[in-house]
Amino acid sequence: MVTVENEDQAHAMVRFAGGAMGVIETSRIAAGRKMGLTYVVTGTKGTLSFTQERMAELKLYRHDEPSNRQGFKTIFVGPEHGLCTIL
Fold first, then answer.
1. What is the average pLDDT across 3-23?
2. What integer pLDDT is reported at residue 48 of this predicted model?
3. Does position 85 have pLDDT exceeding 70, yes or no?
4. Torsion of CA 23, 72, 75, 29, to 10 degrees
5. Where are the domains of the chain?
6. 32-72 per-position pLDDT tens digit
7. 87: pLDDT confidence band, cut at 50, 70 and 90?
């Protein structure tokens, strides 16, 4: 157990200039992650997720997929996608 002498976790609900709502969550010492920086963007058409532990991958879920094909798909990002400098 780690002694924490300051706030370790925070949550915020935000409204963007275009009217979209969002949630921002952060935790300084959440257990179980080596490099837990993660972004998840969810909208009316689906969800896109990125985690720093798997920097060459994106997870994509699209609501418009047929029901028998719905689920997160892994996109392996490489130089062919442009603006990619990690590989």
1. 84
2. 93
3. no
4. 40
5. 9-81
6. 777 778 888 888 899 999 998 898 899 999 999 999 999 99
7. very low
Q: 48 is written with which tokens?
A: 């896109």
Cα separation, 52 vs 72, whole angstroms: 17
Write out the two tokens for 40.
């998840």
Per-position DSSP letters for 16-58, written without gaps between them: -TTS-EEEEEEESS-TT-SS--EEEEEETTEEEEEEGGGTTEE
Q: pLDDT averaged over the chain?
A: 83
Nearest C-alpha neighbor of 56 from the set 39, 79, 34 = 79
How many Cβ atoms from other residues are within 10 Å of residue 79's Cβ? 10
The answer to whether 68 and 75 are in contact (CB under 8 A) is no
Local structure of 63: helix, strand or coil: coil
Q: What is the helix, strand, coil percentage profile of the chain, to 5?
A: 10, 40, 50
How far, in Å, CA of 40 to CA of 50, rounded?
6
